[in-house]
Specification:
Layout (H helix, E strand, L loop, with lengths): L8 H64 L1 H10 L6 E8 L2 E9 L14 H81 L1
Antiparallel strand pairs: 1-2
Helix pairs in contact: 1-2, 1-3
């Protein structure tokens, strides 16, 4: 038997303190799970709105591409699109929620660099390139949201498992050991009391 579970008053006090700390830890984990779940719901709502926004932007982008094709021809538009240089520099800043790092902002340098002249192009071409530049930014935002949601889900699952382990295994074990030690100490006290009564009778 583990020496910490021997029926002594010292072990009784240790187990009482341990049980109290364990129960407090369980309460904190439950609170953390609740906070993270609310954050998750918030980010899922943002993702839904952003997806809807991107769908609308893509639909409008398709119209712009079709109009630009009509204006300057598909070959010319393809040449312009292929020549657009994209600066892929992305700086992601993090915030911390209950010990979890969450991407919170993206700072990018200018993405579109004009590599074509105004000759043989139209406003529709400019608008098309600008629109798809905006779509790219929204897709980056969406990727960050997806990453955030995945991190939150994984951490909520970890917290849930730890809370369940405390509630279903560790706390019941501590309570069981505590009750056993209390019972054994109470039995010893009764035996000692009975023994003292016998000794007292003999003396008298």
């Amino acid at each position: 038997m583990n020496s910490n579970y021997l029926p002594t008053k010292s072990n009784l006090m240790k187990l009482q303190a341990s049980l109290k700390i364990t129960q407090q830890g369980h309460d904190l984990l439950e609170r953390k799970k609740l906070i993270l779940t609310k954050e998750l719901e918030k980010y899922i709502g943002k993702r839904k709105e952003l997806r809807e926004e991107i769908i609308l932007m893509m639909e409008y982008g398709k119209v712009l591409v079709r109009n630009a094709n009509i204006d300057i021809g598909i070959d010319n538009l393809s040449n312009i699109a292929n020549g657009v240089k994209i600066d892929d520099y992305i700086d992601i800043k993090n915030i911390t929620i209950m010990g979890i790092e969450i991407p919170s902002a993206v700072h990018k340098q200018e993405i579109v660099k004009r590599n074509y002249g105004f000759y043989n192009t139209t406003n529709t071409v400019d608008e098309t390139i600008l629109k798809f530049n905006q779509i790219q930014e929204k897709l980056i935002e969406l990727a960050i949201l997806e990453n955030t949601i995945n991190r939150l889900r994984k951490n909520i699952e970890k917290v849930r498992k730890r809370a369940n382990a405390l509630q279903n295994i560790i706390i019941p074990e501590n309570k069981q050991n505590l009750e056993r030690i209390e019972d054994e100490l109470a039995e010893r006290e009764r035996e000692e009391f009975a023994r003292l009564k016998v000794i007292k009778k003999k003396i008298l």
